[in-house]
């Protein structure tokens, strides 16, 4: 475990202990620390911002209700990811086949940024990001979670294995296959993005 992650895990365990002792502010601190990550994870898994927010809210409610059962030797963050992914899986299974398609929101917007008028490069980036989100959502669930946790949330293979309940080698294979599928399906968008980027760079220099 990386040093920063190890320190954060210790802090989380301390906050959990205080929350179990009746300190509501300590649990609030955990919510503040992880709410953005859980919403982001849920959004990328289900492709719907409003549903992602519902999943995140339910994740923290369930975690709080089950807090006494949390094994403090484990990582609180991993436990939260487990709960969130299980909820995502349940929501996806319950969706009707004719459910509305994935929202074409830019990933930059998910991080709080907005595409500004008069900013063609940002518009291109947003369009590409929207296409990426669409293709991520088309991945099989196991590949999707491995790709998101590894490449978008930057978790180590061992922690992802802890979250998903499969071996680190299996996670590594799934993340690789997901990346290859995305590279293949997004090849034309990638080419267009870089071609337009070079064009705009050239116009700016000229």
Report strand %: under 5%
Order of helices and strands: HHHHHHHHHH
Q: Rg to the nearest angstrom?
A: 19 Å
Name given to the CATH architecture of the largest domain:
Orthogonal Bundle
Cα end-to-end separation: 49 Å
Number of helices: 10
Q: Let me know the CATH homologous superfamily of the largest domain.
A: Winged helix-like DNA-binding domain superfamily/Winged helix DNA-binding domain
Largest sheet: none
Query: What is the share of helical residues?
Result: over 70%
Mean pLDDT: 81
SS elements, strand count: 0
CATH fold descriptor of the largest domain:
Arc Repressor Mutant, subunit A
Shape: elongated
Task: Please explain how this structure is put together.
The structure is a single chain. The chain is an all-alpha fold and about 210 residues long. It has two domains: about 1-100, Rna Polymerase Sigma Factor, Chain: A (Orthogonal Bundle), CATH 1.10.1740.10; about 105-205, Winged helix-like DNA-binding domain superfamily/Winged helix DNA-binding domain (Arc Repressor Mutant, subunit A, Orthogonal Bundle). The chain has helices spanning about 5-20, 25-45, 50-65, 75-95, 105-110, 120-140, 140-150, 155-165, 170-185, 185-205. Helix 1 (about 5-20) packs across helix 2 (about 25-45), helix 2 packs across helix 4 (about 75-95) and helix 7 (about 140-150) packs across helix 9 (about 170-185). The longest helix has 23 residues, at about 25-45. It is elongated, with a radius of gyration of 19 Å. The chain starts with a helix and ends with a helix. Mean pLDDT is about 80; it is low at about 95-125.
């Amino acid at each position: 475990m990386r040093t920063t992650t190890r320190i954060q895990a210790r802090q989380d365990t301390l906050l959990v202990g205080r929350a179990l002792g009746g300190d509501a502010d300590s649990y609030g601190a955990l919510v503040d620390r992880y709410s953005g990550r859980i919403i982001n994870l849920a959004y990328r898994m289900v492709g719907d911002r409003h549903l992602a927010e519902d999943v995140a809210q339910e994740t923290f409610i369930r975690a709080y209700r089950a807090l006494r059962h949390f094994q403090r030797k484990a990582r609180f963050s991993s436990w939260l990811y487990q709960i969130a992914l299980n909820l995502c899986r349940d929501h996806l299974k319950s969706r009707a086949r004719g459910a509305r398609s994935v929202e074409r929101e830019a990933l930059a917007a998910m991080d709080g940024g907005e595409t500004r008028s008069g900013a063609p490069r940002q518009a291109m980036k947003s369009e590409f990001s929207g296409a990426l989100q669409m293709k991520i959502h088309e991945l099989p669930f196991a590949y999707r979670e491995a790709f998101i946790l590894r490449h978008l949330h930057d978790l180590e293979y061992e922690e992802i294995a802890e979250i998903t309940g499969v071996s680190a080698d299996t996670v590594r294979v799934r993340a690789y296959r997901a990346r290859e599928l995305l590279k293949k399906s997004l090849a034309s968008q990638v080419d267009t993005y870089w071609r337009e980027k070079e064009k705009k760079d050239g116009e700016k220099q000229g």
